[in-house]
TrEMBL record:
Pfam families: NNH5. Residues 6-135 form the NACHT N-terminal helical domain. This is NACHT N-terminal helical domain-containing protein. It comes from the Bacteria. InterPro entries: NNH.
């Protein structure tokens, strides 16, 4: 056969993944295929008509492997024998043989399609071509000039170029952020494989509570479990009546480790419950969860939600939905939140009222103070060769005030060691200033903007932040933040946040000279609020 049908199939496959060519109207795409194989005129013979039929049939085909099937030489020969010589069944027999034995089309076994339907579609395209009054490619070229064709290509290319950055931004959010995770042993194994082992220490030295860091710490047993709270929660779970609905709210002041504890629960209980860790909540998400749980073992459910106040009305509105969809096998919902924020959630009583049993645990980390200090100081001692006398001084600072949370104690120790010039330590806002200066000076104010709101528990939308920055938009902001996974500002979906709320409070600590200088130098930035 003079025309290379396999080459046509290959071009169609490439066209299917090319964003410019895929955006062309159908006729333009057909012209593009023939232009690439350098055929401008098709003769009205079987080879030419079959080639055009292959293009017309395959230009929108999914999967494209079907085009490869009909491009096989013996398939084309069988079609000719059946169409012209009336050898009934020749095409079907040849197709079946190739589907069974030909490795070039083996991939089709993974797709669902009806071979009879595909035969009928190919026949229809062939008959339509043979009844045309002129060669098909000439008809198309008569309708469309080459100049118009290339203008169309240019127009689509320019449109895609304008949307490319936004698409990268949206795709990166979809890839890096998920609304929920189904927690099982495979999940924890993936986390362990992907863990940033070299930076686990930042969980203690920087109170890094970003979701990724919490997963890494728990997966690699770097987390110090709160056995007192474990015992209290275990008693509640033991007393939970089978097939009932139970709410457990774990409340505390900030900086005590309740978010870390929630991730610890996800690891501890994943063999006994179908555990779902939520990062967002609405009806559509619950539908997705219900669908995915259909393939899981028939176990009770455990839904985990950290800082549920950020869900707003969706939390309350989801109460009945959770009970309706998931009560069959019994469900335990565990929430962790700051006490003052939980009490201010509108209509929270309505949400709680949907559960058969309701329990409250006050999260206290008194028993963790000593082991957390040991973890913290062991890192500093290893890094800076500190003496035992320095350790004792730091320990006195750490345990000085009973009212301090774990994160506040960490801050006090770091300030003390820096003041005594025992360690070299850059706070997050100092790291951010260096990063912004080296990469995007326009982002220098971003830490101040986020911290101003985050100290009160408010996460800011990316678009909202971008409005207060000069010469940078939301997609550009996301692209810059993607330079490193260890930046002091990170994103959750469309929100920007710091590693921990306490860091925002550290930033505004009156004793921090850098804070006072930053606020003074950038006071005009605050006026825009």
């Amino acid at each position: 056969m003079g025309i290379n049908l396999t080459a046509i199939a290959g071009i169609i496959a490439k066209l299917a993944i090319d964003p410019v060519k895929r955006g062309l109207e159908r006729n333009y795409r057909i012209i593009k295929i023939f232009e690439e194989i350098e055929i401008n005129v098709l003769k009205p013979d079987f080879e030419s008509v079959y080639a055009y039929t292959l293009v017309s049939y395959g230009v929108d085909k999914d999967p494209t492997e079907l085009v490869k099937l009909f491009a096989l030489k013996d398939v084309a020969a069988a079609f000719k024998a059946e169409f012209y010589m009336k050898e009934e069944g020749a095409l079907r027999r040849t197709l079946d043989h190739n589907l069974t034995t030909n490795p070039d089309v083996r991939e089709l076994k993974n797709h669902q399609f009806s071979i009879d339907d595909e035969i009928n579609l190919f026949y229809a395209e062939f008959e339509k071509t043979t009844t045309s009054t002129a060669a098909p490619i000439q008809v198309l070229l008569a309708q469309t000039t080459i100049e118009e064709f290339h203008d169309e290509v240019k127009k689509i290319s320019e449109k895609l170029a304008k949307e490319e950055l936004k698409k990268e931004w949206e795709d990166s959010i979809r890839l890096d952020y998920k609304d929920f995770d189904l927690i099982d042993e495979d999940f924890w194994e993936r986390v362990r494989i992907d863990s940033d082992i070299d930076h686990l220490y930042m969980y203690y030295t920087r109170t890094d509570s970003s979701p990724t860091k919490l997963l890494d710490v728990v997966a690699n047993d770097f987390y110090i479990s709160n056995e007192n709270i474990d015992s209290e929660l275990d008693r509640i779970l033991i007393d939970t009546v089978q097939n009932c609905t139970t709410l457990i709210k774990i409340l505390s002041k900030g900086g005590e480790g309740k978010s870390s504890y929630l991730y610890h629960l996800a690891k501890k209980h994943h063999r006994f419950y179908n555990v779902v860790l939520f990062r967002d909540l609405n009806k559509q998400i619950l539908i997705q969860v219900e669908s995915l749980l259909g393939d899981k073992p028939s176990l009770p459910l455990m839904f985990l939600m950290d800082n549920p106040s950020i869900y707003g009305e969706d939390l309350v509105q989801s109460g009945n939905n959770i009970i309706k969809r998931f009560r069959k096998n019994g469900i335990v919902v565990v929430l962790t939140e700051r006490e003052f924020r939980y009490d201010k959630i509108d209509n929270i009583d309505t949400f709680e009222g949907t559960f058969n049993y309701r329990n409250e645990i006050t999260y206290k980390a008194n028993s963790l103070r000593e082991p957390v200090f040991d973890k913290l100081f062991t890192f500093f001692q290893k890094e800076f060769k500190l003496t035992d006398d320095v350790r004792e001084g730091a320990k006195r600072v750490y345990f000085k005030d009973e009212r301090r949370s774990l994160s506040e104690r960490t801050f006090a120790v770091i300030k003390h060691l820096r003041k005594e010039k025992q360690i070299e330590f850059a706070f997050d806002w100092e790291d951010w200033e260096k990063f912004a200066a080296a990469n995007k000076p326009e982002l220098e104010d971003l830490f101040l903007i986020i911290a101003t709101f985050y100290q009160f528990g408010f996460n800011l939308d990316i678009d909202f932040c971008a409005k207060f920055l000069e010469r940078i938009d939301a997609p550009g902001l996301i692209k810059t933040l993607g330079v490193s996974h260890n930046l002091p500002i990170y994103r959750e979906s469309h929100r920007l946040t710091l590693r921990h709320e306490t860091i925002a409070e550290w930033y505004f600590d009156p004793e921090e000279k850098i804070q006072r200088e930053t606020v003074q130098d950038q006071s005009t930035s605050l006026k825009i609020f």
